[in-house]
């Protein structure tokens, strides 16, 4: 049955907050939607948005870019990032993606990157290792991925806090357009002089590749390079910090599992994999219908924004048994925490390397690592999820 504007729910009404609010439990809402309204039109600040919550439908739409095009991202995140991979389809998407792919390939993650990440992570731990206490979010997880991505791109970022704030403001466009646009402009003001300087140099980092590589026989314009950077900085920083934070949250809340992992470090990969399913850091990705479409028997008119709710799909009992249970021994290979289809996360190998390195270093260096007593921490968020704080003690 089609919904009328009068009965159309809002995001606020569904979740009790907006997409960036620190909501603790969106999963009860998702369970109801999967059962009762697997394709639900909701009213948002950016217009009508169809939420898709079943695993089967989420993967169906993400494997069909002809009907569910990425161009819809131009209407939200594209406003602050500019034209990026996220809103491209077909050949254009492949050609642009190929430019950056070598920097994030499994080979790159085996050659120079492990040492780079290890150094960045250990430098940060040096700052609090002698203190016996720390907040792992504000002092660690929040900072190191920004340093890593800045290194890969070749952007000297002295003020990581300011950069991270810009990255967060940028991706909050759907909730606060003015803040998002201001951050976008701020980033350009910072990056443009750097581009001017680097055009005349021949480096080997990603920025040089973007400045000197070509797509279809033409060099990227400054605007195209800036757009790439406005994508990569938040994509590389705002996601991994959430994954690492939730992995640490899980270990700190389950001392037995922490001991197992301390003894057998190969288990870190399994914890990471299960966190990507159980508390997906990125909870939804959007597409636009190129023509009238149908999912789960529900009609979706052409030109509509459709959001694949990754977080809901990853807890669909039709796909994962007892989906609310965190279990590193389950079969979770098919989770969609890094997306699905042609836009599958370009930085997935880096995210895994960063998180693995961070957890290993913390376990190596902080003995008797535990949560600070009496300081509850929560995993929160709707569009993105991670712990708000991780106060720890150690000896
Ligand atoms: C835990 C960490 C991460 C998660 C959960 C994550 C999640 C995602 C998801 C769900 C998508 C799909 C977007 C879509 O289908 O529209 C995506 C795309 C992307 N991610 Fe990640 N990401 C993470 C880390 C990273 C890192 C470290 C980078 C490095 C720069 C990165 C770069 C990208 C890029 C460039 C795309 C666009 C790919 C394309 O459109 O072809 N991500 N990511």
Question: Which helices and strands appear, and what pairs or packs with what?
Answer:
Elements lengths: L10 H5 L11 H10 L2 E6 L2 E6 L2 H8 L5 E2 L7 H5 L8 H11 L5 H5 L2 H16 L4 E3 H6 L2 H10 L6 H12 L5 H23 L6 H7 L1 E2 L2 E2 L2 H16 L2 H14 L1 H9 L3 H12 L5 E6 L3 E3 L2 E3 L4 E5 H4 L34 H18 L4 E2 L7 E2 L5 E2 L3 E3 L2
Parallel strand pairs: 2-10
Antiparallel strand pairs: 1-2, 3-7, 4-14, 5-6, 7-10, 8-9, 11-14, 12-13
Bound molecules: protoporphyrin IX containing FE.
The site of protoporphyrin IX containing FE has 25 residues, from helix 13, helix 14 and helix 18.
Can you walk me through this structure?
The protein is of the alpha+beta class. The chain has a single domain, classed as Cytochrome P450 (Cytochrome p450, Orthogonal Bundle), CATH 1.10.630. The protein contains 18 helices and 14 strands. The chain has helices at residues 11-15, 27-36, 55-62, 77-81, 90-100, 106-110, 113-128, 136-141, 144-153, 160-171, 177-199, 206-212, 222-237, 240-253, 255-263, 267-278, 310-313, 348-365; strands at 39-44, 47-52, 68-69, 133-135, 214-215, 218-219, 284-289, 293-295, 298-300, 305-309, 370-371, 379-380, 386-387, 391-393. Strands 1-2-10-7-3 form a five-stranded mixed β-sheet. A three-stranded antiparallel β-sheet has the order 4-14-11. Helix 10 packs across helix 11 and helix 14 packs across helix 18 (348-365). The model has no long low-confidence stretch (mean pLDDT 92). Bound molecules: protoporphyrin IX containing FE. Residues 70, 85-86, 97, 104, 149, 231-232, 235-236, 239-240, 243, 281-282, 285, 337-339, 343, 345-347, 350-351 line the site of protoporphyrin IX containing FE (HEM). The site of protoporphyrin IX containing FE has 25 residues, from helix 13, helix 14 and helix 18.
């Amino acid at each position: 049955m089609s919904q009328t504007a009068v009965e159309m729910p809002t995001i606020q009404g569904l979740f009790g907050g907006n997409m960036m609010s620190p909501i603790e439990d969106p999963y009860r809402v998702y369970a109801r939607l999967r059962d009762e309204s697997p394709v639900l039109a909701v009213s948002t600040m950016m217009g009508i948005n169809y939420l898709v919550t079943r695993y089967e439908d989420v993967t169906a739409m993400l494997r069909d870019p002809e009907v569910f095009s990425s161009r819809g991202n131009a209407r939200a995140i594209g406003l602050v990032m500019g034209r990026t991979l996220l809103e491209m389809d077909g050949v254009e998407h492949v050609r642009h993606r190929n430019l950056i792919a070598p920097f994030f390939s499994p080979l790159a993650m085996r050659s120079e990157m492990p040492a780079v990440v290890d150094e960045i992570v250990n430098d940060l731990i040096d700052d609090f290792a002698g203190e016996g206490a720390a907040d792992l979010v504000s002092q660690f997880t929040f900072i190191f991925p920004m340093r890593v991505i800045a290194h890969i791109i070749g952007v000297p970022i002295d003020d990581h806090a300011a950069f991270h704030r810009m990255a967060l403001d940028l991706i909050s466009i759907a909730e606060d357009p003015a803040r998002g646009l201001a951050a976008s402009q701020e980033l350009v003001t910072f990056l443009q002089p750097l581009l001017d300087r680097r055009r005349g140099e021949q480096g080997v980092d990603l920025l040089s590749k973007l400045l000197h590589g070509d797509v279809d026989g033409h060099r990227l314009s400054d605007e195209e390079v800036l757009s790439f950077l406005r994508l990569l900085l938040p994509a590389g920083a705002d996601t991994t910090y959430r994954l690492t934070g939730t992995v640490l949250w899980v270990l700190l809340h389950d001392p037995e599992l922490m001991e197992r992992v301390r003894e057998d470090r190969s288990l870190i990969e399994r914890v990471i994999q299960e966190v990507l399913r159980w508390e997906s850091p990125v909870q939804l990705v959007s597409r636009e219908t190129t023509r009238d479409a149908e999912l789960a028997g529900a009609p979706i008119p052409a030109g509509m924004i459709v959001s694949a709710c990754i977080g809901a799909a990853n807890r669909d009992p039709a796909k994962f048994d007892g989906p609310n249970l965190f279990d590193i021994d389950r079969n979770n290979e098919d989770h969609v925490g890094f997306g699905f289809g042609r836009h599958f996360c370009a930085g997935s190998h880096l995210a895994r390397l960063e998180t693995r390195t961070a957890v290993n270093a913390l376990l190596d260096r902080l003995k008797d690592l535990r949560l600070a007593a009496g300081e509850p921490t929560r995993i929160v968020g709707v569009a993105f999820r991670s712990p708000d704080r991780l106060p720890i003690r150690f000896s």
